From TrEMBL:
Keyword vocabulary terms for this entry: Methyltransferase, S-adenosyl-L-methionine, Transferase
Keyword Hydrolase found: no
Record-listed substrate binding positions: N193, P194, P195, Y196
Binding sites annotated in the UniProt record for S-adenosyl-L-methionine: G127, T128, G129, S130, G131, E150, N193
Residues annotated as transmembrane: none
Molecular function terms, GO-annotated: nucleic acid binding; peptide chain release factor N(5)-glutamine methyltransferase activity
Organism: Microbacterium oxydans
Domain of life: Bacteria
Function: Methylates the class 1 translation termination release factors RF1/PrfA and RF2/PrfB on the glutamine residue of the universally conserved GGQ motif.
One Pfam family in the UniProt entry: MTS
EC number: 2.1.1.297
Name recorded for this polypeptide: Release factor glutamine methyltransferase
């Protein structure tokens, strides 16, 4: 058995991360240890309680991972995976890391597909990134037909890896402005987490500012350029009564409802996430 205490190594790693301002440093230290050791986080916690050791090679690998995290490289880039609902997605440089708040946004689309009454309802994810939203719809509503479009070649490569083998999901490399013309007037749901950060609003977190792709973040002067495009494209894709779901920043709900209302959408509504911040706006196709 190694003389190096796993508890001491993880504790030191957590302190190093705390010293540079990493949020939740102990969580990240435990997750990095789990990644290096090929275990789940709970197994690492149990090993710490038991007083287990860690061998020199694993300790060295953990140290290297901590150095990367201390430089504010996203945890998910280091481990190569990101959890999303029941999924574990492959992620890395060139693709937006899916956020926990999006897990609640996709529920609106899933509920609409489940309740559509159609034998094979169509759901469309525009700007799919890693494929998180599309995969959640496809796997949680297996009788649905899901279509996803991504413009970035880098992100499309990650999404391709994630959706491989999912028979009811079609992924294309395409601009959302003209994606899936063959589906016009047939979709039950169109959902998107578009870039919505105003060009002049530089994100505070280094993980976002330095590592998330700019194409996935910035949406023009007011952050809503892609939302305007999305409104028009979704009007054509959806059948009458179909649902549009848009994720956005906490201060953008009112402006998005105004855009959608002017474009002719009905029943526009903005919804809060679990932190009680405005997070998504929905509307019904007339």
């Amino acid at each position: 058995m190694s003389d190096i205490s796993l508890a001491a190594v993880v504790r030191t790693a957590a302190q190093r991360l705390a010293d540079v301002g990493v949020p939740d440093p102990l969580v990240d230290a435990e997750l990095l240890a789990a990644h290096v050791l090929g275990r789940r986080r709970g197994e690492v916690q149990a090993a710490i309680v038991r007083g287990d050791g860690i061998d020199d090679a694993a300790a060295s690998a953990l140290d290297a991972a901590v150095v990367r995290r201390a430089a504010r490289e996203p945890l998910q880039h280091i481990t190569g995976t990101a959890p999303f609902r029941h999924l574990e997605l492959a992620v890395g440089p060139g693709v937006f890391v899916p956020r926990p708040e999006t897990e609640t946004v996709v529920q609106y689309a899933i509920d609409a597909l489940v309740n559509s009454g159609e034998p094979a309802p169509i759901g469309i994810d525009l700007g799919t990134g890693s494929g998180a939203i599309a995969l959640a719809m496809a796997t949680e509503v297996p009788h649905a037909r899901i279509f996803a479009a991504e413009l970035s070649e880098d992100a499309h490569a990650w999404a391709s890896r994630n959706v491989e083998g999912v028979d009811n999901l079609t992924l294309v490399l395409s601009d959302l402005r003209d994606a899936f013309p063959e589906l016009d007037g047939t979709a039950s749901v169109v959902i998107s987490n578009p870039p919505y950060v105003p060009d002049a609003a530089i994100p505070r977190d280094p993980e976002v500012r330095l590592f998330d792709p700019a194409m996935a973040l910035y949406g023009g002067e007011d952050g809503l350029d892609i939302v305007r495009v999305l409104s028009g494209r979704a009007l054509r894709l959806l059948r009458p009564g179909g649902l549009l779901v848009i994720e956005h920043g906490e201060l953008q709900g009112g402006s998005i409802r105004e855009i959608l209302t002017v474009d002719g959408w009905r029943a526009t509504a903005t919804h809060r996430d679990l932190t009680l911040r405005d997070r998504a706006t929905t509307a019904i196709r007339p």
